[in-house]
Amino acid sequence: MTKRALVTGVTGQDGAYLAQLLLGKGYEVHGLLARRSTDTKWRLRELGIDGDIRFIEGDLADAASLQRALVKSQADEVYNLGAQSFVASSWDQPLLTGTVDALGVTGLLEAIRQFKPDARFYQASTSEMFGLIQAERQDENTPFYPRSPYGVAKLYGHWITVNYRESFGLHASSGILFNHESPLRGIEFVTRKVTDAVARIKLGKQRELRLGNIDAKRDWGFAGDYVEAMWLMLQQAKPADYVVATGVTTTVRDMCKIAFEAVGLNYQDHVVVDPAFFRPAEVDILLGNPAKAERVLGWKPRTSLVELIGMMVEADLRRVGREQ
Ligand code: NDP
Ligand code: GDP
User: Fold this and answer.
1) Taking all residues of the chain, what is their mean pLDDT, rounded to a whole number?
2) Closest residue to atom 41 of ligand 1, CA basis
3) What is the pLDDT of residue 90?
4) Is residue 194 over pLDDT 80?
5) pLDDT of residue 218
6) Residue 95's pLDDT is what?
7) Of 11, 106, 122, 128, which is the active-site residue?
8) CATH superfamily of domain region 4-180+220-244
9) For the chain, N or C: smaller number of CB within 10 Å?
């Protein structure tokens, strides 16, 4: 029997890699497509899978569209990756962030409860929920302390997932994923902003790179590795919550050093700290402990930060080169 999956956020970084993984496993993949005035399928095209997904128009802010998507797809597995996912924007659009990232999760869980209660559910939770960290290495038992409207909204999404699991017996799991990047990462996030700038500087199209807090530390992994953990969570007999991380943390400064060195440049000659990119409240350091994911799911990260940044710089050199 062909398995059917419904993926919200299918046009995003993780949605694209997850859809590719599921198609490779023989799934029928349905993707919720939010209406936009511009074409949003560039990632799916880069992976060569845009023609293989069955799109259903809908929006996480529109509960009726979620119900329709559930009924239409008859999904066995639902992956909720759709979100206003950029922390900095969440201070500019706090209500939208809450509507989509918090209440949108309830909308989708309600649709499952009413129309497809045997469907398995994955919620894209985030290390941003740890925010002002309460333990040196964060795991599934570390208390949360979100530091942005995004983190607060995602914490609601996390707890409503736990609550629907406990209230209604849904097979609902929450993956607490630490930052993960790839050549398909949005340009507003710091790794991709840096690798794109490195390519432009190397090819003589830009001279400097303006960044905010370069002392912040993140536990960065490769998105292609992380979507495997999402799938594994839904293959378990019992739903649960898992931290997915590499267990290594690096400053933005050292990540810049790696990226510039990949093309033989020194980051100190190009990076300028610009307070315009500072945030109203910062998450200074994140460092995950993925021991449970390794023990229960048999999941391990396979890509080092140097490999990841190298892959991103190479892709951006190709893209910027094509623009010339
Ligand atoms: P992206 O920003 O790349 O993708 C977000 C996706 O959500 C896009 O497909 C976007 O559609 C869609 N979307 C936005 N608003 C709505 C809406 N109102 N209704 C339906 N869909 C919507 O994020 P990632 O792929 O990086 O992340 C996937 C998920 O994982 C997100 O929920 C994110 O918050 C979470 N997460 C990500 C981490 C990371 O490091 N990448 C870490 C931990 C959690 P469109 O293309 O049309 O804008
Ligand atoms: P986040 O962890 O989800 O907020 O992912 P980002 O990639 O947006 O940011 C990671 C860290 O890099 C945060 O601590 C930011 O404050 C820091 N940072 C420093 N300069 C920049 C910048 O110019 N853009 C972004 N996006 N982040 C920056």
Assistant:
1) 98
2) 180
3) 98
4) yes
5) 98
6) 98
7) 128
8) NAD(P)-binding Rossmann-like Domain (3.40.50.720)
9) N
CA nearest neighbour of 259 among 206, 200, 303, 215: 200
Phi-psi region of 140 (alpha: psi -120 to 50; beta: other; left: phi over 0): alpha
Q: Where does the pLDDT of residue 324 fall: very low under 50, low under 70, confident under 90, or very high at 90 and above?
A: confident
Tell me the pLDDT tens digit for each residue of 251-308: 999 999 999 999 999 999 999 999 999 999 999 999 999 999 999 999 999 999 999 9
Nearest ligand, CA 220: 1
Please state, in angstroms and as integers, the Cα–Cα distance from residue 90 to each residue in 101, 160, 211, 281, 297, following that order.
10, 20, 18, 12, 32
User: By C-alpha distance, which of 152, 169, 50 is closest to 103?
Assistant: 152
Query: Cα-flanking dihedrals φ and ψ of residue 18, to 5°?
Result: -65, -40
pLDDT at 113 over 90: yes
Q: Which residue has its alpha carbon closest to ligand 2 atom 16? A: 213
Query: Could you confirm whether domain 186-219+249-286+303-323 is CATH 3.90.25.10?
Result: yes
Helix 190-202 to helix 305-323 angle, to the nearest 10 degrees? 50
Does residue 132 register a pLDDT over 90?
yes
Question: Active-site residue 150, yes or no?
Answer: yes
| Ligand 1: nearest atom to the Cα of 128 | 43
Mean per-residue pLDDT for 77-92? 98
Ligand 1: atom nearest CA of 15 is 25
- Ligand 1 lined by 142 (C-beta under 6 Å): no
* 3-state percent helix, strand, coil for the chain, nearest multiple of 5: 45, 15, 40
Q: 119 in helix, strand or coil?
A: coil
Domain parsing of the chain, residue ranges: 4-180+220-244, 186-219+249-286+303-323
Backbone φ, ψ for residue 29 (5° rounding) = -105, 120
Which atom belonging to ligand 2 lies closest to the Cα atom of 87? Answer: 4
